[in-house]
Design a protein that fits this description.
By secondary structure, this protein is α/β, with parallel strands linked by helices. The chain is built from 13 helices and eleven strands. The structure holds pyridoxal-5'-phosphate (PLP). Pyridoxal-5'-phosphate binds next to helix 3.
């Protein structure tokens, strides 16, 4: 499971996911309190407005967007790929007037371009993705964009579905007003249970909404019934929440600093090994995402050929792409373990060799070994 998510889960998370308990009992109330406390640390926020949603990362995206956007809300969507485009589409469907700031393919947003767009458009809401999984670019200027929102009233919405707990994200210090994540990526949990954290500023905007939210299930104010009052909103996905609790406990135990370093060392070692095999990475280092790595396809091969071959012959799953000519390998959570890296580099190199592409498998394996032993 070395694709762009879902990623492998630990035995402890799998065990937790096998338990069903009362969704409104004392035990669940304690679990929810602890999930919120741990989320405060993982999102780096003191905001109390943390809540979950039964559904994929997209449900959390929609919860954030639908609660902050209504008819004629001015939305600036910074788009550098498929998932940032999805946020823009959700904002449009919520009734917003969406201005798209399109970033050239394979690049992260330029802070001057963001500044100009914010000044020109004067948005109420700004959306961005920290790690654009689709083309493996990293918007590393969230702190600067967050500071720009101080000059305005805009709420800053960040999709951290693939990045949360793999790299720094400081919700409060970076003036982020909504952070979205799913379970199945950085947190190394199951898909289907997702989280959103709203800042106090976002919560004021939600409370000032002039109309009623059309989506009942995604209504953040209704969700506080379960997330803050131990009362019924809808039947919570109890097994998934227990799995999420365990996955977050493991993050806290490892510490964010330790986890970021494991991801950095693992991803850099994998990148070096892939280049030493003789393959090219899609994005240049200054714009490159560490959580998902994009490898350029040789002219005569499709992503489907490669994914099919590596799965069938080496039992390693990697991902194709939503557009660009790449295949993608994930570096999130349990994927960032040495045994997974060795198996993946061997399988990838052997696949290209089987498909008649010239690669140097022993050199790639040696580069991996040395990068893991002497991380820089
Ligand atoms: C950055 C990003 N945002 C949002 C999503 C959507 O998550 P889901 O597929 O769980 O709805 C994904 C999924 O790959 C993603 O990578």
């Amino acid at each position: 499971m070395m694709g762009a998510g879902p990623v492998p889960i630990s035995d402890a998370v799998a065990r937790a996911n096998g338990i069903v308990i009362n969704h409104l009992g004392d035990t669940m109330a304690q679990v929810i309190e602890q999930v919120k406390t741990m989320a405060g640390y993982i999102f780096q926020t003191n905001s109390p407005w943390i809540m979950g949603v039964a559904g994929p990362g997209s449900a959390a995206m929609e919860m954030a967007v639908a609660n902050l956007v209504w008819k004629d809300t001015r939305v600036l969507s910074i788009c550098n790929g498929f998932f940032s485009g999805r946020l823009a589409e959700m904002a449009r469907r919520a009734g917003g007037n969406v201005e798209t700031l399109t970033v050239p393919e394979g690049q992260s947003i330029d802070i001057n371009a963001a500044h100009a767009a914010i000044q020109n458009y004067n948005p109420d809401v700004i959306t961005i993705v920290q790690g654009e999984t689709s083309n493996t670019t990293h918007n590393h200027q969230l702190a600067q964009i967050g500071s720009l929102t101080l000059e305005t009233d805009a709420c800053f919405v960040v999709d951290a579905v693939c990045t949360l707990s793999t790299m720094p994200l400081h919700m409060d210090d970076w003036y982020i007003d909504a952070v979205i994540t799913g379970g199945q990526k950085g947190l190394s949990c199951i898909p289907g249970v997702s989280l959103v954290a709203f800042s106090e500023k976002a919560w004021r905007r939600i409370n000032a909404r002039p109309d009623q939210l059309p989506q009942w299930t995604l209504d953040a104010r209704l969700a506080t019934q379960f997330w803050h009052e131990n009362a019924y909103h809808y039947t919570a996905p109890v097994s998934g929440l227990l799995a999420l609790h365990e996955a977050m406990r493991l993050v806290c135990h490892e510490t964010l600093a330790g986890r970021f370093e494991r991801h950095r060392v693992s991803s850099h070692a994998l990148q070096r090994a892939i280049e030493t095999l003789g393959l090219s990475l899609y994005v240049t280092p200054e714009h490159r995402l560490n959580s998902v790595i994009g490898i350029k396809l040789p002219d005569n091969l499709s992503g489907r050929d490669i994914c099919h071959h590596i799965s069938k012959h080496y039992r390693v799953e990697i991902a194709g792409s939503f557009g660009p000519p790449i295949v993608r390998i994930g570096q999130m959570g349990e994927q960032c373990r040495a045994h997974n890296l060795f198996r993946t580099v061997h399988a990838l190199g052997s696949t290209f060799k089987d498909l008649k592409v010239t690669v140097d498998v022993p050199a790639g394996m040696a580069a991996l070994e040395s990068a893991l032993q002497q991380p820089n």
